[in-house]
Amino acid sequence: MGKKINVAIAGVGNCASALIQGIQYYNSNSSQKDSIGLTSFNLGGYEPGDINFVAAFDIAESKVGKDLSEAIFAPPNNALRIVDVPSFGIKVQKGGVLDGAGSHFSEVVKVSDEFEVNVEKILKDANVDILINYLPVGSKKASHYYAEKCLEAGVCFINAIPVFISSNPEWYNRFGDKNIPCAGDDVMSQVGATVVHKTLAKLWVDRGVSVDETYQLNIGGDMDFYNMLDEDRLEDKRVSKTSAVKAMIPYDIPMRIGPSDYVNFLQNDKVCYIYMKGRFFGKVPIELDLKLRVPDAYNSSGVMIDAIRGAKIAMDRGVSGPLESISAYCFKHPPIQMSYSEAKSNFMDFIGGKRER
Fold this sequence. Notes:
Elements: E1 5-10, H1 14-28, E2 51-58, H2 68-71, E3 93-94, H3 103-108, H4 119-125, E4 130-133, H5 140-153, E5 156-159, H6 169-177, E6 181-183, H7 193-206, E7 210-220, H8 223-227, H9 235-246, E8 255-262, E9 269-280, E10 284-295, H10 296-299, H11 301-316, E11 321-322, H12 324-330, H13 340-351
Helix pairs in contact: 1-11, 4-5, 7-9, 12-13
């Protein structure tokens, strides 16, 4: 088993910033084995400090050409700074633009004038094990571009955004045919809107409550929410979030789930409102109103650290194609939807070698 996990990032936004800072935090506290926010400090022989960033791609002028340790704090990033990050000696390079810059994105982010690099060559030269797709929501063509580069370079693809690749048979069969693993799609936060909503929905159904209708509304103040003001970039995001909750309710009901608006002063905070209405004993009505507020980028970082380590374990074992248990545990739109408890049980069984994938 290789000790280091060589990782490349496509899209050096708030989520990349939180992930990199988080790994630095856990690495600097390794003597304490601080596992808050992680499934386990040591997962299948890998610790957070074993994740080694070796390449990064972006298109923003404010980030391209900078050391990765500087780029994660460059505007328009606004994730909370929790730790100092030493220089990586790795410069962010310009990847393919394609549809990575939407109309709202382009209002505040200037695309770098640098030449686009040969992504496949860089992945090979840096001996990358895993590429994480952190591109802006709606970057379908750009996500396909990086997935293709992973197929060409023999690199595992972890898809953190709502473009359907790891859950799309056309794509995951291609990874399987090349003996390369993939996981995704659309990373699920540790305690976020989707996991809370799907858990509540499963609880109501399991407790004999008839769910009549539900909605989930989300607002935030970072570039992710600003970018999602482009309504045509939201289709897969709505499908991803809705499918996760819908899979917990075995009948059709009126349901509306998805991002709702951009509020700039919220910065990287995300506010979620969940409403559920139903009937329990004697058809007596029951209603639930819930508000959840979290720093958004950090809410998925621990999950991504688990996904990276799980994917490397799969690579060590020669497992290829869609990683079903990792995807169900860590992502909103996996190949196979499961309740949270089932997904975690299957994930831990996979790590322990009791499940094939």
